[in-house]
Amino acid sequence: MFLFSGFVLNPERAELRAPDGSMIRLRPKAFELLKLFAANSHRVLGKQDLMEVVWPGIHVGEDSLFQCIREIRTALGDRERQMIKLVSGRGYLFAVDVTNGQEREKAAPLPQAGKQFGAWPHWRLRAAVLASLGVLAVALLIVFGRFYLFQPSRLVLEVLPITDAAGGPEGIALSRGITAELVSGLSKIEGIDLVASERSNTHVTYQVRADLNKIGQSWTIQARLTNVASGEIQTVAEIAADAGETDPQRLQSRLAAGVGYALAVRMNDLGERDSPQRAGGADIAIQQAVASINQTTRERFATAREILETYRAADPENIDLRVALAGLHLRAVQMGWYNPTEKAAAETDARALLEDALRSRPQSIPVLGAYCRFLTATNQFAESLVACARALTLNPWDGAALYQIGLAEVQLGRFEDGLRTFTEADRFDTPAVSRWTWLLGAGWANLLLDRNVEAIGLLERSIAITPGSGRSYMLLATAYRRLGRKKEAWEALLKGMALRPDFTVRTLPLSSRNASDTYLVATQAILRTLVDVGLPTGDPR
C-alpha cells in the first residue's frame, strides 16, 4: 500500500482513494502506471521502460503512455504537473514523497455522517478520518516495524542460485562455486542486507538472477536485477571467460567478480540516487573524461580537461564533475604531464575537490575510489591504505582500488604483500579497462624481489595492452639486462625513451617522499642496471 499527498494506493485491491476517503477510478493500465511511479518515487523512468513494464510483450506507441499519464494527472488533480514531471530527453519523474505500508486488516466502510457524526461539518469529518488514519499508521509502525510502512533505508538483496543452462556436471559445479563467491563478496558490502534465497522474505528490495552457459570455447554468464516492488528487470552484466582456462578456481573467480563488480556499482548507484549534486547534463563530459583517463596521450588529456573545466564553470556545485576533474589531475600527475608548479597546483586542487565531494557523498564508490587514488599518487601511504580499504567495503572486486593498495605496499617496502595484492586484482580482472595496471604492478614487485623471469612475462602482458608512461619498458629493460639479454634490454630502453625523452636517473623514479629505505635501496639497484643499459644519469656536464 502506497501513501502520498493524502492519497492511498492499494495494489492488492486495485484501489486509489482520495484524501477524503472517496474512491478514484482509473483504467487498469493507468493504475499499473501509477503503481510503478509510486514504487519509484523521485526516480526518472524512461518512456520505453515504462511502456515495456505496463504493456509487456505488446508494441504500443507513446500516445498510449501519454493518455495514461493524463488520466493519472487528472485523478490526482495535478494540473500544474508538479507531481508527474517530464524530464526532457530522459522520461518521467514522480516528484512526491511516498511511504509504503501494509494494511493489517481490511478497512471498515466509513459510517454515514448522519448516523454517527450528526451534523458535523465536512471539514471536521475529513479531519477525523485523517486523524484516525494517522493513529492507525503509528500503531502499525510500532507493531510491525519500519519495513512494513516504509521502503527500507538499506537495500535488501536476495541472490538466487545461478542456473546452468547446459546441466552438465562441470557447469553445475561452476555455477555453485560462482554463487558461493558472489554471496561471499556481496555480504561484505556496506549498506546492503543480504538474505538467504531459501527463505521467503517480503522485505526484499532486489533479486539477482543469473544464467550460466557454455557457448563454443567460452563460459558466459548473464546476470539480471529485478526490482521486487515494480517488477522492473535490468540486465546487470554479461561476462565471458575462456573455457580453456586450466585453473577452475581462477575461472570461477573471474566470472563471479565480473558479475559482482557490476552489481556493486549498480547497487551503489541505487543507494546514491538521492545524493546531492549528481551529474545531470554533465554526464557526457564525464564519460569523455573517463575515457581520457584510460587513454595515455597528452592531447586527449588536454581536450578532456578543457571540456570538464567548461562544464565546471557552468555548474560549480556538481560533485560528479569535481571527482572527474580531480581524477584527470591525478592522471596527469602520474603520467608526468605537469611541470613542478602545475603539479603542486593540481594536487592542491584535487585534494580540495575530493574532500568536498567526500563530505557530500561519503558512500559513493567513484568518490572514494578517486580519493584512494589521490592519496597514493601523493605518497600519503598510511592514509591511502585506509581510504582504499574503505573503497573495497563498497566493492570488494574493485581491481583499481587493489592496485592502489599494492602501490602503497610496495613503496612501504612490503614487496610480497604488494605482489599478493596485484595478483588478487588480476584474479578478479575487474574492471577490465585497468587490467594493464595490476599486471605492471605485479611485474614491478617481482623485479624488486629479483624474480626477473616472472617480471618479464607480466610486464610484456601489460605493455601489450598499453605502454603507459614508458616506465614499463624501463622495468622490462632491467629484467632483460639482469638475465643477460642485452640486445632486448637496449631495445626496450629505446622504446621507453621514445615515449619519455626526458627520462634520466633523476626523473624516472617515483617520488621518494614517505617511501621506506627497503624500497629506496631496491630502486637504486634498478637504476644502476638501467645506467649499464644506457639510461642517461641526468647529471650536469
Structure described in brief:
The protein is an alpha+beta fold and 541 residues long. Helices cover 55% and strands 12% of the residues.
Description:
The chain is of the alpha+beta class and 541 residues long. Helices cover 55% and strands 12% of the residues. It contains 21 helices and 14 strands. The chain has helices at residues 28-39, 47-54, 62-76, 113-117, 122-144, 146-149, 169-186, 248-271, 283-293, 298-314, 319-335, 340-360, 365-377, 381-392, 399-411, 415-428, 435-448, 452-465, 471-482, 486-499, 517-533; strands at residues 2-4, 7-10, 15-17, 23-24, 44-45, 84-87, 91-94, 99-100, 155-159, 163-164, 192-195, 206-215, 218-227, 233-242. Strand 13 and strand 14 (233-242) form a beta hairpin. Helix 13 (365-377) runs parallel beside helix 15, helix 14 (381-392) runs antiparallel to helix 15 (399-411) and helix 17 (435-448) packs antiparallel against helix 18. The relative contact order is 0.05. Residues 103-125 and 135-152 have low confidence and may be disordered.
**Average pLDDT over all residues:** 83
Tell me the radius of gyration: 29 Å
Give the helix proportion (percent range).
55-70%
Reported for the largest beta sheet, the result is: 6 strands, mixed
CATH architecture of the domain at 2-148: Orthogonal Bundle
Uncertain parts: 103-125, 135-152
